[in-house]
Write a structure and sequence with these properties.
The chain is an all-alpha fold. It is elongated and about 75 Å long.
Protein backbone atom coordinates (compact mmCIF):
# COMPACT_ATOMS: atom_id res chain seq x y z
CA UNK A 1 0.00 0.00 0.00
CA UNK A 2 2.86 2.33 0.89
CA UNK A 3 4.63 1.56 -2.39
CA UNK A 4 1.48 2.45 -4.37
CA UNK A 5 1.17 5.80 -2.54
CA UNK A 6 4.84 6.50 -3.19
CA UNK A 7 4.35 5.65 -6.87
CA UNK A 8 1.41 8.09 -7.15
CA UNK A 9 3.49 10.79 -5.43
CA UNK A 10 6.32 10.22 -7.89
CA UNK A 11 3.87 10.48 -10.83
CA UNK A 12 2.49 13.73 -9.40
CA UNK A 13 6.01 15.14 -9.04
CA UNK A 14 6.76 14.31 -12.67
CA UNK A 15 3.97 16.65 -13.75
CA UNK A 16 4.87 20.23 -14.54
CA UNK A 17 3.16 23.07 -12.63
CA UNK A 18 1.02 23.78 -15.70
CA UNK A 19 -0.09 20.15 -15.91
CA UNK A 20 -0.99 20.09 -12.22
CA UNK A 21 -2.93 23.35 -12.61
CA UNK A 22 -4.84 22.00 -15.62
CA UNK A 23 -5.62 18.81 -13.73
CA UNK A 24 -7.03 20.81 -10.80
CA UNK A 25 -9.06 22.93 -13.22
CA UNK A 26 -10.60 19.84 -14.83
CA UNK A 27 -11.50 18.35 -11.46
CA UNK A 28 -13.01 21.65 -10.32
CA UNK A 29 -15.04 21.91 -13.52
CA UNK A 30 -16.45 18.39 -13.24
CA UNK A 31 -17.25 18.87 -9.55
CA UNK A 32 -19.31 21.98 -10.25
CA UNK A 33 -20.87 20.60 -13.43
CA UNK A 34 -22.07 17.47 -11.63
CA UNK A 35 -23.99 19.68 -9.18
CA UNK A 36 -26.21 20.82 -12.07
CA UNK A 37 -28.48 17.80 -12.12
CA UNK A 38 -30.58 19.11 -15.00
CA UNK A 39 -27.45 19.59 -17.07
CA UNK A 40 -26.13 16.11 -16.23
CA UNK A 41 -29.50 14.54 -17.05
CA UNK A 42 -29.62 16.47 -20.33
CA UNK A 43 -26.12 15.27 -21.18
CA UNK A 44 -27.29 11.68 -20.69
CA UNK A 45 -30.25 12.35 -23.02
CA UNK A 46 -27.91 13.79 -25.66
CA UNK A 47 -25.67 10.72 -25.45
CA UNK A 48 -28.75 8.49 -25.89
CA UNK A 49 -29.85 10.53 -28.93
CA UNK A 50 -26.37 10.13 -30.42
CA UNK A 51 -26.49 6.38 -29.86
CA UNK A 52 -29.94 6.19 -31.46
CA UNK A 53 -28.72 8.17 -34.48
CA UNK A 54 -25.63 6.01 -34.83
CA UNK A 55 -27.63 2.77 -34.57
CA UNK A 56 -30.60 3.96 -36.63
CA UNK A 57 -30.05 1.35 -39.35
CA UNK A 58 -30.03 -1.43 -36.76
CA UNK A 59 -32.91 -0.14 -34.63
CA UNK A 60 -35.25 0.66 -37.53
CA UNK A 61 -37.86 -2.09 -37.95
CA UNK A 62 -38.66 -0.91 -41.50
CA UNK A 63 -37.03 0.84 -44.41
CA UNK A 64 -37.75 4.57 -43.77
CA UNK A 65 -38.44 5.16 -47.47
CA UNK A 66 -40.61 2.11 -48.14
CA UNK A 67 -44.21 3.01 -48.92
CA UNK A 68 -47.30 0.86 -48.38
CA UNK A 69 -50.55 2.66 -49.17
CA UNK A 70 -52.55 -0.13 -47.53
CA UNK A 71 -51.15 0.96 -44.16
CA UNK A 72 -51.35 4.75 -44.61
CA UNK A 73 -52.18 6.92 -41.58
CA UNK A 74 -52.29 4.01 -39.15
CA UNK A 75 -52.16 5.11 -35.49
CA UNK A 76 -49.39 3.93 -33.15
CA UNK A 77 -49.51 0.20 -32.49
CA UNK A 78 -47.26 -2.74 -31.69
CA UNK A 79 -46.65 -3.15 -35.44
CA UNK A 80 -45.84 0.53 -36.02
CA UNK A 81 -44.72 2.08 -32.74
CA UNK A 82 -45.27 5.71 -33.83
CA UNK A 83 -47.85 5.04 -36.54
CA UNK A 84 -47.51 5.55 -40.29
CA UNK A 85 -47.68 8.59 -42.57
CA UNK A 86 -49.84 9.37 -45.60
CA UNK A 87 -47.74 7.03 -47.78
CA UNK A 88 -47.74 4.17 -45.31
CA UNK A 89 -44.13 4.73 -44.23
CA UNK A 90 -43.19 3.80 -40.67
CA UNK A 91 -42.83 7.03 -38.64
CA UNK A 92 -40.62 5.40 -36.01
CA UNK A 93 -38.07 4.37 -38.64
CA UNK A 94 -38.19 7.80 -40.25
CA UNK A 95 -37.71 9.48 -36.87
CA UNK A 96 -34.63 7.37 -36.17
CA UNK A 97 -33.02 8.24 -39.50
CA UNK A 98 -34.18 11.85 -39.21
CA UNK A 99 -32.17 12.23 -36.01
CA UNK A 100 -29.00 11.84 -38.09
CA UNK A 101 -29.99 14.79 -40.27
CA UNK A 102 -30.78 17.07 -37.35
CA UNK A 103 -27.60 16.26 -35.44
CA UNK A 104 -25.45 16.48 -38.57
CA UNK A 105 -26.83 19.91 -39.44
CA UNK A 106 -26.37 21.10 -35.87
CA UNK A 107 -22.74 20.08 -35.53
CA UNK A 108 -21.53 20.90 -39.05
CA UNK A 109 -23.19 24.33 -38.95
CA UNK A 110 -21.73 25.06 -35.51
CA UNK A 111 -18.28 23.90 -36.65
CA UNK A 112 -18.42 26.42 -39.52
CA UNK A 113 -19.82 29.13 -37.25
CA UNK A 114 -17.26 28.59 -34.49
CA UNK A 115 -14.38 28.44 -36.98
CA UNK A 116 -15.29 31.79 -38.53
CA UNK A 117 -16.07 33.34 -35.14
CA UNK A 118 -12.75 32.26 -33.61
CA UNK A 119 -10.76 33.57 -36.58
CA UNK A 120 -12.52 36.97 -36.67
CA UNK A 121 -12.59 37.40 -32.88
CA UNK A 122 -8.93 36.39 -32.47
CA UNK A 123 -7.74 38.83 -35.12
CA UNK A 124 -9.85 41.68 -33.73
CA UNK A 125 -8.86 41.10 -30.10
CA UNK A 126 -5.17 40.46 -30.64
CA UNK A 127 -4.33 43.25 -33.08
CA UNK A 128 -6.98 45.78 -31.92
CA UNK A 129 -6.66 49.24 -33.53
CA UNK A 130 -7.98 49.59 -37.07
CA UNK A 131 -8.18 45.80 -37.49
CA UNK A 132 -10.51 45.57 -34.50
CA UNK A 133 -12.62 48.51 -35.70
CA UNK A 134 -12.96 47.13 -39.22
CA UNK A 135 -13.87 43.60 -38.15
CA UNK A 136 -16.29 44.71 -35.44
CA UNK A 137 -18.09 47.05 -37.82
CA UNK A 138 -18.47 44.10 -40.17
CA UNK A 139 -19.93 42.10 -37.28
CA UNK A 140 -22.36 44.96 -36.58
CA UNK A 141 -23.44 44.98 -40.24
CA UNK A 142 -24.03 41.21 -40.17
CA UNK A 143 -26.12 41.55 -37.01
CA UNK A 144 -28.38 44.05 -38.77
CA UNK A 145 -29.73 41.36 -41.10
CA UNK A 146 -32.50 39.08 -39.79
CA UNK A 147 -30.65 35.76 -39.85
CA UNK A 148 -33.58 33.48 -40.64
CA UNK A 149 -34.78 35.59 -43.56
CA UNK A 150 -31.22 35.85 -44.86
CA UNK A 151 -30.99 32.05 -44.74
CA UNK A 152 -34.30 31.74 -46.57
CA UNK A 153 -33.13 34.14 -49.28
CA UNK A 154 -29.79 32.41 -49.82
CA UNK A 155 -31.27 28.90 -49.86
CA UNK A 156 -34.06 30.01 -52.20
CA UNK A 157 -31.51 31.49 -54.62
CA UNK A 158 -29.09 28.55 -54.48
CA UNK A 159 -31.72 25.84 -54.32
CA UNK A 160 -32.64 23.65 -51.33
CA UNK A 161 -30.19 20.97 -50.18
CA UNK A 162 -28.95 19.73 -46.83
CA UNK A 163 -25.34 20.76 -47.45
CA UNK A 164 -26.38 24.31 -48.39
CA UNK A 165 -28.49 24.54 -45.24
CA UNK A 166 -25.46 23.59 -43.10
CA UNK A 167 -23.23 26.16 -44.79
CA UNK A 168 -25.82 28.94 -44.73
CA UNK A 169 -26.56 28.42 -41.02
CA UNK A 170 -22.83 28.43 -40.28
CA UNK A 171 -21.98 31.62 -42.18
CA UNK A 172 -24.90 33.57 -40.72
CA UNK A 173 -24.45 32.69 -37.03
CA UNK A 174 -20.77 33.29 -36.15
CA UNK A 175 -21.08 36.87 -34.85
CA UNK A 176 -21.75 35.97 -31.20
CA UNK A 177 -18.72 33.67 -31.07
CA UNK A 178 -16.55 36.40 -32.60
CA UNK A 179 -17.59 38.87 -29.89
CA UNK A 180 -16.91 36.42 -27.06
CA UNK A 181 -13.49 35.48 -28.45
CA UNK A 182 -12.57 39.13 -29.02
CA UNK A 183 -13.41 39.99 -25.40
CA UNK A 184 -11.25 37.14 -24.11
CA UNK A 185 -8.34 38.08 -26.38
CA UNK A 186 -8.46 41.73 -25.29
CA UNK A 187 -7.94 40.55 -21.72
CA UNK A 188 -5.47 37.73 -22.32
CA UNK A 189 -3.13 39.64 -24.64
CA UNK A 190 -2.14 41.84 -21.68
CA UNK A 191 -1.26 38.89 -19.42
CA UNK A 192 2.33 38.16 -18.44
CA UNK A 193 2.60 34.94 -20.46
CA UNK A 194 1.59 36.75 -23.64
CA UNK A 195 4.05 39.58 -23.04
CA UNK A 196 6.79 37.07 -22.27
CA UNK A 197 6.12 35.22 -25.53
CA UNK A 198 6.31 38.50 -27.46
CA UNK A 199 9.59 39.41 -25.72
CA UNK A 200 11.04 36.04 -26.76
CA UNK A 201 10.19 36.81 -30.38
CA UNK A 202 7.45 34.19 -30.78
CA UNK A 203 5.47 34.72 -33.99
CA UNK A 204 1.98 36.17 -33.74
CA UNK A 205 0.16 33.15 -35.12
CA UNK A 206 1.86 30.92 -32.56
CA UNK A 207 0.95 33.26 -29.70
CA UNK A 208 -2.66 33.41 -30.93
CA UNK A 209 -3.26 29.70 -31.47
CA UNK A 210 -0.85 28.15 -28.98
CA UNK A 211 -0.88 30.50 -25.99
CA UNK A 212 -4.02 32.66 -26.00
CA UNK A 213 -6.71 30.64 -27.80
CA UNK A 214 -6.65 27.60 -25.43
CA UNK A 215 -7.30 29.99 -22.54
CA UNK A 216 -10.18 31.67 -24.41
CA UNK A 217 -12.13 28.52 -25.27
CA UNK A 218 -14.45 28.36 -22.24
CA UNK A 219 -17.10 30.77 -23.62
CA UNK A 220 -16.69 29.18 -27.05
CA UNK A 221 -17.73 25.78 -25.69
CA UNK A 222 -20.83 27.31 -24.14
CA UNK A 223 -21.69 29.22 -27.32
CA UNK A 224 -21.15 26.12 -29.46
CA UNK A 225 -23.43 23.98 -27.29
CA UNK A 226 -26.21 26.54 -27.44
CA UNK A 227 -25.51 26.99 -31.16
CA UNK A 228 -26.19 23.31 -31.86
CA UNK A 229 -29.66 23.70 -30.35
CA UNK A 230 -30.29 26.83 -32.41
CA UNK A 231 -29.07 25.15 -35.64
CA UNK A 232 -31.36 22.16 -35.07
CA UNK A 233 -34.31 24.53 -34.66
CA UNK A 234 -33.37 26.47 -37.81
CA UNK A 235 -33.00 23.27 -39.83
CA UNK A 236 -36.40 22.07 -38.63
CA UNK A 237 -37.90 25.41 -39.62
CA UNK A 238 -36.29 25.38 -43.07
CA UNK A 239 -37.33 21.76 -43.63
CA UNK A 240 -40.85 22.63 -42.52
CA UNK A 241 -40.91 25.35 -45.20
CA UNK A 242 -39.50 22.98 -47.81
CA UNK A 243 -35.95 24.40 -47.95
CA UNK A 244 -34.14 21.78 -45.85
CA UNK A 245 -33.72 18.05 -46.36
CA UNK A 246 -35.67 17.07 -49.45
CA UNK A 247 -38.07 14.10 -49.54
CA UNK A 248 -37.84 11.18 -49.48
CA UNK A 249 -34.88 11.79 -47.11
CA UNK A 250 -36.40 11.95 -43.61
CA UNK A 251 -35.80 14.77 -41.15
CA UNK A 252 -37.82 15.86 -38.15
CA UNK A 253 -38.73 19.08 -39.96
CA UNK A 254 -40.13 17.52 -43.11
CA UNK A 255 -42.00 14.87 -41.11
CA UNK A 256 -43.73 17.79 -39.43
CA UNK A 257 -44.43 19.30 -42.83
CA UNK A 258 -46.03 16.09 -44.11
CA UNK A 259 -48.19 15.88 -40.99
CA UNK A 260 -49.44 19.45 -41.26
CA UNK A 261 -52.25 18.47 -43.65
CA UNK A 262 -53.37 15.67 -41.29
CA UNK A 263 -52.98 17.46 -37.97
CA UNK A 264 -56.51 16.57 -36.81
CA UNK A 265 -56.69 13.09 -38.39
CA UNK A 266 -53.15 11.86 -37.66
CA UNK A 267 -51.87 13.68 -34.57
CA UNK A 268 -48.80 11.42 -34.30
CA UNK A 269 -47.25 12.95 -37.43
CA UNK A 270 -46.76 16.27 -35.63
CA UNK A 271 -46.59 15.30 -31.95
CA UNK A 272 -43.67 12.86 -32.12
CA UNK A 273 -41.24 14.87 -34.30
CA UNK A 274 -42.20 18.05 -32.44
CA UNK A 275 -41.49 16.34 -29.11
CA UNK A 276 -38.13 15.03 -30.41
CA UNK A 277 -37.11 18.55 -31.46
CA UNK A 278 -38.26 19.95 -28.10
CA UNK A 279 -36.32 17.39 -26.04
CA UNK A 280 -33.14 17.66 -28.13
CA UNK A 281 -33.06 21.47 -28.18
CA UNK A 282 -33.92 21.72 -24.47
CA UNK A 283 -31.19 19.22 -23.59
CA UNK A 284 -28.52 21.14 -25.49
CA UNK A 285 -29.67 24.40 -23.90
CA UNK A 286 -29.53 22.94 -20.38
CA UNK A 287 -26.06 21.46 -20.99
CA UNK A 288 -24.93 24.84 -22.30
CA UNK A 289 -26.19 26.56 -19.16
CA UNK A 290 -24.48 23.93 -17.02
CA UNK A 291 -21.18 24.49 -18.85
CA UNK A 292 -21.54 28.24 -18.41
CA UNK A 293 -22.15 27.93 -14.65
CA UNK A 294 -19.30 25.43 -14.16
CA UNK A 295 -16.75 27.38 -16.22
CA UNK A 296 -17.50 30.82 -14.76
CA UNK A 297 -16.18 31.17 -11.17
CA UNK A 298 -18.64 34.02 -10.55
CA UNK A 299 -21.61 31.68 -11.06
CA UNK A 300 -20.39 28.57 -9.24
CA UNK A 301 -21.72 29.42 -5.81
CA UNK A 302 -25.17 30.60 -6.85
CA UNK A 303 -26.87 27.22 -6.95
Amino acid sequence: MGSQTQEFDMDDKKQSPNQRFEERQRKTFWRYFQRRRMAVGSLVIIVIIFLIAGLASILSPYDPGKTNVAFKLKPPSLQHYLGTDNLGRDVFSRMLHGSRVSLSVGFVAVAISVGIGILVGAMAGYYSGWVDSLLMRFVDVMLCFPSFFLMLTVVALLGPSLFKVMVVIGITSWMGTARFVRAEFLSLRERDFTQAAKALGVKDYRIIFRHILPNAMAPVFVTATLGVASAILVEAGLSFLGFGAQPPAPSWGNILTEGRAYIFDAWWLTVFPGFAILVTVLSFNLVGEGLRDALDPRLRGRR
